[in-house]
Amino acid sequence: MEQVNVIKVGGAVVENADTLAQLLADFSALPGAKVLVHGGGRSATQVAANLGIESQMVGGRRITDEAMLRVVTMVYGGLVNKNVVARLQALGVQALGLTGADADLIRSHRRPVGEVDYGWVGDVDRVRGDLLATLIRQGIVPVVAPLTHDGEGHMLNTNADTIASEVACALTPFFDVTLTFCFEKRGLLRNPDDEESVVPFVSEADFAQLKAEGVVSGGMVPKLENAFQAIRRGVRSVVITRADHLDGQGGTCLS
Amino acid sequence: MEQVNVIKVGGAVVENADTLAQLLADFSALPGAKVLVHGGGRSATQVAANLGIESQMVGGRRITDEAMLRVVTMVYGGLVNKNVVARLQALGVQALGLTGADADLIRSHRRPVGEVDYGWVGDVDRVRGDLLATLIRQGIVPVVAPLTHDGEGHMLNTNADTIASEVACALTPFFDVTLTFCFEKRGLLRNPDDEESVVPFVSEADFAQLKAEGVVSGGMVPKLENAFQAIRRGVRSVVITRADHLDGQGGTCLS
């Protein structure tokens, strides 16, 4: 089966001119089929602030009222997405920007109100993997913004990590899929202060052990849980690496 | 040959909730293959103003400095485009939002500085009609924002009327193309104060005559010149009508 690499980069990387240039150069050099999923939270916060709209976060998640939905639709779907697409085109990559609304790519539902009302935030119901596979086979490189739609005319703000996982899983009937999460560290570190202490391979059994030892804690726990969930759903491997090591060399490989 | 209707609607229609709802209902009811090209200038002006950026217009054209390019990329490519796409999806239309950068759809060059420096404004070099035709044949309805790219990593602000004409011409090798411009009046009026005085058919010879009589003047002259240019380039007919008469009944048909 043909391979595809679904790569997720956070806002911090795409919003800084230097790291973005490096990322896009590395991404364009990656061989084979690929998909880029990007964040954009810092730009959204900044544009919102410039518009006099305050960003409210709960547990790292953005509360998305109507005004904020307009901002993230502008920033993720327009500013960040089109800037990335235009720059990839300049590097010879046949990039096509997409949100979940485009061609009904990612349908979600508004998160039910529990302890927190997140507002116009969507939890993913399904991804049209067939459509993505058709595009990829035509040589197109999808660039996916963290926005979905509810099928009733509303855009919904959706976590970019979740979108990357769901896109990767939806592609498994068509491709041999690797999912790469770029973040600040080179991988899962045995010692958080030592970038040389990357744990190169982690199985699900190792994960339980690493949790028990306290090597994996805090925000990394749900990240790795999501990664292993993707693997159980058919993704070949999940790589955690730094954006300047997009090829995954020296990162942590979960499988 | 299969027919396709390329429909251009101005910002005033897509930016008002009532007229937008009517437009999308009418558009979704149109039979056959179709493309929607939209404006969004008023929203751009408003968002820019809210961000403390002043809109400068020369002869009805927006001067697009770097800050304004960010605004139009957000507003046209994000806010307006995705709102229209999500709402069309809710009406069962397989809409896909595109700018000229996406899949290298519309390449343009920055307008040379003459008497006026328009800034990041693009004049169209070419449209990938083959790509659009492929999408349309897959049942997709392209929704095109008035943005292009220069192939060197920059988005460019591009007149929506021009995009509609260029898209229509690029589709002529693949389809029998009608180009519909929606505007405030029901068509070309013999008496500008009488909506019942629509001139139903205008040939290029009639156009010369109507210009001589002063029935066509001011901003309508370049609009009709562009329309006849599209017809000379293979578009079957150009319809000028009001947005609430999308089927072209009662409008002016140029051919």
CATH fold naming of the largest domain in chain A: Carbamate kinase
> Gyration radius of chain A, to the nearest Å?
18 Å
Number of domains of chain A: 2
Question: Looking across the biggest beta sheet of chain A, what order are the strands in?
Answer: 5-8-2-1-11-13-14-12
Largest interface: A-B, 39 and 39 residues
What average pLDDT do the residues of chain A reach?
Answer: 94
Q: So what's the CATH class of the largest domain in chain A? A: Alpha Beta
Tell me what you see in this structure:
The structure is a homodimer of 255-residue chains. The mean pLDDT of chain A is 94. The first copy, chain A, is of the alpha/beta class and 255 residues long. In chain A, helix 3 packs across helix 4 (66-90) and helix 5 (129-137) packs across helix 6. In chain A, 38% of the residues lie in helices and 24% in strands. At the A-B interface, helix 4 and strand 5 of A face helix 4 and strand 5 of B.
Task: Please tag this protein with its features.
homodimer, eight-stranded mixed β-sheet, Carbamate kinase, alpha/beta, 2 domains, 8 helices, two-stranded antiparallel sheet, globular, 24% strand, 14 strands, 255 residues
